[in-house]
Specification:
single chain; mainly alpha; Growth Hormone, Chain: A; 2 domains; 16 helices; about 0% strand
Length: about 450
Amino acid sequence: MTVTAPSVTLRSDLHASAATENLVRTTKMTFSRPEPLVRSARVHRSALEFHNARLFVAGQALSNVGTFSQIVALSLLVLSLTDSGVALGAVMAVQSVPMIALGPWAGAHLDRLPLRNVLLLTSIAGAAQAACMGFLSATNAINLVWIFGLSLLLGVVQVFDRPAAQAFLVELVPRDAVPSAVGFASSAQSIGRLGGPALAAVLFAWSGSATVFAVNALSYTAVLLALVLLRSSELLPRVLHSSKRTSMATAVGFARRAPQVRDVLIANAIIGLLAFNFPTFLASLASLTFGQPSLFGVAESLNALTALLAGLLLARYLRQPTLALVGVAAIALGSSLLWTALSPTPAVFLASMLYFGLVVVAYTTASQALVQQHSPPEMGGRMMSLFTLGSMGTTPLGAILVGLVIDHVSPRAAIGLGAASALVSGIVLLLRARDGVRNTAASH
């Protein structure tokens, strides 16, 4: 299959500057009344039509099963060694520190490097980290010091891996298919959330954490094979630039001048801070409010199932994400959390998970796709680092606040706080979209 190159291609310093300014002007103009949010699959191209996108996402999906199984096994291992929830929280916080400390720096470097090579290296490093965890567990040499050190190492790997995987999507499909590719990639995350915990439960009960870590190490083979087997002739590589051209300040400056990108990044940071502590929300509500810890696993499975469905539907039909669409998705996310917070019975709580799974994927897909589609391709690494910093880097800070609300008020109040952040952010985005439409109409 022959595909055309992306519409924004930079061939010299002069062209780069002009292209970026044109994209900023285009981004400002796209406040005009949005076109239909979806289009028939016969009219526009879906990411599912492209071999490289299918292969890459399949590799990610298989590896995510291993990744989520390791998360469960690591939690069980820490609790078995320490019998301390504080220790478990500290391990998860240590893994998140590199995203906060190194995220902007890593994003600048990603735009100087071939992303395919970066992902090969991060996959090898991730496999090595899991293999070390497996070896130490199998030899009974594992302790909290090793766990902290290896968790920090994994956090450093993820600083490069996660934004690189997101930015790499624009090299797999034409720019008009990027929203579809983002939705398709979200389904890989959902597959991991569905299969990983179940696999971990079986393997941990059978032979302990060492086997789970070993299986995760092997699962990286799927990513490596997918990257190696990509059809180079069908890739749409970005133009790489020197360090002077890839500073994070340049990307921040672009975001400030591009209204839609700026508004979505700010809203994403607020929502990430207060609303993205989903495991803490669900676990505390199940255990502390309903007194049934097993509800947590059921809730995760239910929302992962509908999240997978949402990802596949968005991959098929999402055409042009707009600021209004992101605002509606944020409001839907807030309403799902409000439903969860107000659930009077376990049955109502579990029913809310079906809705939650749909809307959380709709929000993350629409917001990420908008940022990617309205940013120059040569800024992909930096923009995705900023996006990831908002959705993941702020979450550990929010976890402290959420934990305080849970301890001093209730789990319902903590979830309600998250719901309020998403609802308010969504309303502000809708108002900004309306103002943009009015300003564009007035200028004409």
